[in-house]
Design goal:
Number of strands: 14
Distance between the termini: 138 Å
Mean pLDDT: 76
Low-confidence stretches: 86-202, 588-596
Structural class: mainly alpha
Oligomer: single chain
Largest sheet: 3 strands, mixed
Strand content: 5-15%
Helix content: 40-55%
Number of helices: 24
Radius of gyration: 49 Å
């Protein structure tokens, strides 16, 4: 009949096997219920008994469902356990305890148990009754009513009731107990071990990926452990070869502390493959070279998308990225003519970008164009028009850049003359000159054809050629302007500043050109300059004057005293044609196609 009255406090059911509450189970349920009520979790409306009775119990499955908490709430439960366990039992030995009442109370709550009890009662006058003590010493307390009721209780309840009643009797100062505590200690020790293992299992993560759970192709990867010295040494060798300082410090710390290392086999295999690649001596074929080239270029494309699309939330055209990719491939083809490099298409690049970024970007088709945008952004009409303008600017810039790179460079001869320095090493392309004239003058034809516009467009075009060619092609402006500034200021710092801004050649190049022009002038046996026609029928004028530059210095150095001469001549067209023919003949005599180019001199030593 007592079993018919037993019910589960969680599901309110009377079926199946119902286990009565014991003190530790009831205490744990009360702590879990307090957490569920505080954070408004499921099962917060459960009503638990305030004390142990013969009717309230639980099913195992209901108990497991009720006590199961998430990890973040489990920590609160462990803190409550520590707080309750740290509270001392303040039991004073001076308080008199009625042994008969204590034993009777505990025996009514316990089941079949045999407790040898040594009783030594003391009275206020210090006299003892030896007969009662000897009789109680040799007696065993086996209450019949408890023994009869214990047959209806489960074994785990009986054991816990025995432990509880034994500990209650032991707390009294008037009763000395001699009991076998091996079972009690074993049970408590096992419970602690399970709790420690459960807490430690949460902290076990993979050494490589720093995760406790990992899936590969919908399969859960098991977490393995090892404490072998060879395993430590193997990982240290890998990380040392791969230059992975973070994992190297981590494995050294684990080795010094003699801690167990946990890992996934898949993560270990990935690092093993990287290690084998680094130590392998397999010669790289053309396929490997092409793969590395594509990998470097794609990484550059990825960095561009991350900077423009993900961080700045701009939109980028897929066709512009593909053109950028193919331009880099063409450049690599020039550097490595033997490499078999093929250009890519927009669809191929789109697949690679989708596979790499997955859900962080979106690719939208508008007006037969594919546009890459951030996943959290939407494409507006202003963005689309701005993107079209940017694509147009990029196309114009690439056309002009290609025209500059295809310029025919005319190197300066070994014997430099004044006209060579004025002409420079190139002629400004028509596309570049037209672009800057329209850029400066706009649609005003009169302004575009003016002298000022021509001068500015020539200057800007020369700067563009010098910057795009990285200084390998020297236009007329960059030679003559540099020599003029050097002659007027004699300042190396000013020349270098203008060179860094792309307006003239560097100081070293200007010194070399001046020295070569001086050597060519000294080697001529004629006193008159090469442009002067020695003809008595032509009117020729000569003027000389002293050029003195005084600098206020204490020692009087760095002063200049020079004599400058000017010669001028009036010539007609026939005489000018004769002069050009003579210069061409002289150039053909000085230039030797078989002679290798000599290094230009920066200083001149004249022997008198």
């Amino acid at each position: 009949m007592a079993r018919d009255k037993m019910k589960c406090v969680f599901c309110k059911g009377h079926e199946d096997k119902i286990i009565l509450f014991v003190s530790d189970k009831l205490k744990k349920c009360q702590e879990v219920l307090s957490i569920r009520v505080k954070y408004k979790l499921k099962y917060s409306d459960i009503v638990l008994p305030t004390q142990i009775n013969n009717t309230d119990g639980y099913h195992r499955q209901c108990y497991s469902s009720f006590t199961a908490l998430m990890t973040k709430y489990r920590g609160l439960l462990s803190e409550a356990d520590c707080t309750s366990n740290s509270t001392p039992n303040n039991l004073s030995s001076s308080i008199p305890v009625d042994i008969s009442e204590t034993i009777a109370k505990n025996l009514t709550e316990s089941s079949n148990s045999e407790i040898p009890c040594e009783v030594g009662s003391s009275s206020s006058n210090g006299q003892t009754t030896s007969g009662d003590s000897e009789q109680s010493l040799n007696s065993k307390i086996i209450p019949e009513d408890v023994a009869s009721n214990s047959n209806n209780l489960p074994e785990d309840v009986v054991l816990n009731l025995d432990i509880q009643s034994t500990l209650d009797v032991a707390t009294s100062s008037n009763c000395g107990l001699i009991i076998n505590e091996s079972n009690v200690c074993d049970d408590i020790f096992d419970i602690n071990i399970e709790e420690i293992d459960t807490g430690r299992q949460v902290k076990n993560v993979c050494f490589y990926c720093n995760k406790d759970r990992k899936q590969n192709k919908s399969k859960q990867q098991n977490l393995h452990s090892s404490n072998d010295a060879k395993h430590y040494q193997k990982i240290i060798e890998w990380m040392d070869k791969l230059n992975n300082e973070e994992l190297l410090q981590k494995i050294n710390h684990l080795k010094s502390a003699n801690q167990t290392i946990f890992y996934h086999h898949l993560c270990e295999l990935n690092f093993l493959n990287e290690y084998n690649k680094s130590v392998s001596d397999v010669p790289h074929t053309s396929w490997h070279k092409n793969r590395n080239i594509h990998k470097e270029i794609f990484n550059y494309i990825v960095s561009t998308i991350e900077e423009e699309v993900i961080k700045k939330r701009h939109c980028v055209s897929l066709s512009s990225l593909c053109d950028m990719y193919n331009d880099e491939l063409k450049y690599e083809q020039k550097l490595q003519p033997q490499a078999d490099i093929c250009l890519i298409t927009n669809n191929y690049l789109e697949e690679k970008i989708r596979k790499y970024f997955q859900k962080t970007i979106k690719i939208i088709s508008r007006q037969k164009k594919k546009i890459i945008i951030n996943k959290n952004c939407s494409l507006l009409e202003d963005d689309l028009s701005q993107l079209e303008e940017n694509d147009l600017i990029d196309k114009v810039a690439l056309i002009l850049r290609d025209a500059i790179l295809k310029i025919d460079k005319s190197k300066l001869p070994s014997q430099i003359k004044t006209k060579d320095l004025i002409a420079g090493e190139c002629v400004i392309p028509h596309k570049l000159d037209r672009f800057f004239k329209i850029f400066i003058g706009g649609k005003d034809i009169r302004r575009r054809d003016g002298i000022n516009c021509n001068r500015l467009s020539s200057s800007m075009a020369a700067d563009a050629i010098f910057c795009v060619s990285n200084g390998t092609v020297k236009p007329s402006k960059h030679i003559t302007l540099g020599m003029t500034i050097k002659s007027l200021t004699s300042s190396k710092k000013i020349i270098n500043i203008l060179n860094r801004l792309g307006h003239c050649c560097n100081y070293t190049t200007l010194e070399e050109l001046e020295t070569e022009a001086t050597i060519s002038s000294v080697q001529r046996s004629q006193v008159c300059p090469p442009d002067i026609i020695r003809n008595p029928s032509l009117c020729t004028g000569v003027a000389f004057d002293n050029f003195d530059r005084y600098i206020d210095t204490l020692d009087g150095k760095e002063t200049l005293h020079d004599t400058v001469g000017i010669i001028y001549q009036n010539i007609d067209n026939n005489s000018h044609r004769e002069l050009n023919e003579n210069d061409d003949n002289a150039d053909s005599e000085n230039v030797s196609p078989t002679r290798p180019p000599l290094k230009r001199k920066r200083s001149l030593k004249i022997e008198y």
